[in-house]
Amino acid sequence: MNVFLLEDDEAIGIGLKYSLENEGYTVTIATSVKSAFEIINKEKFALYILDLTLPDGSGYDVCKKIKSIGDFPVIFLTAYDDEVNVVMGLELGADDYISKPFRVKELIARIKSVLRRYNRESKGIIKIGNVLINTNKATVFKNGQEVILTAMEYKLFLILLNNRGNILSRNKLLEYIWDVEGDFVNDNTLTVYIKRLRDKIEDDPSAPMIIKTIRGLGYVIENDK
Q1: What are the tens digits of pLDDT across the range 186-212?
Q2: Where would I find the Response regulatory domain in this sequence (predicted)?
Q3: Peptide bond before 73: cis, by omega within 30 degrees of 0?
Q4: Nearest in space to 152 (alpha carbons), one of 123, 184, 178
Q5: DSSP category for residue 23
Q6: The architecture CATH gives domain 125-220
């Protein structure tokens, strides 16, 4: 499997290339934004690992370019672990990030997790815990048994799934969701939909493990690890 690595630190680049190739990956390294653009314009990769700070620009710019070409998985390497940088990367479509210094085994585990998720979803299958969603057929199963969702419950579920790893505020969810009559869903109705969806997909709706509440911020379905 071919992996693209953007890293301007030669020692880190060589070390990661060696470790990843020992895991069976083929690694192509770029050390600048300019060389990265030259490579990704000619070749597609199964996974892109991007350093954030480069001598001639940012990994954000490279991520934008990759996502304009296709929906390929991206992991950021960054020395910055503050919330602003993390959120910005996720909003650009990055699938995960790991802060330097990091352990190579942890990065490899993140890579495998992201690739598993992409392999499932390329076939229209999303799996979260014991819940499986077939987006091609708009069906949901829990422990192998089909769960019947209303159109709005399914739409709400998909919005949260498509934003995994990102906390969605109630206002943001209300912007996304329209009811079947074409009117905006109000705040009280959103609460009802969240509760009904949890009742159907959670093992314990009072202590949800899939759709989590982040107090004071909103709701999130976390990326699987």
Answers
A1: 888 899 999 999 999 999 999 999 999
A2: 2-115
A3: no
A4: 178
A5: T
A6: Orthogonal Bundle (1.10)
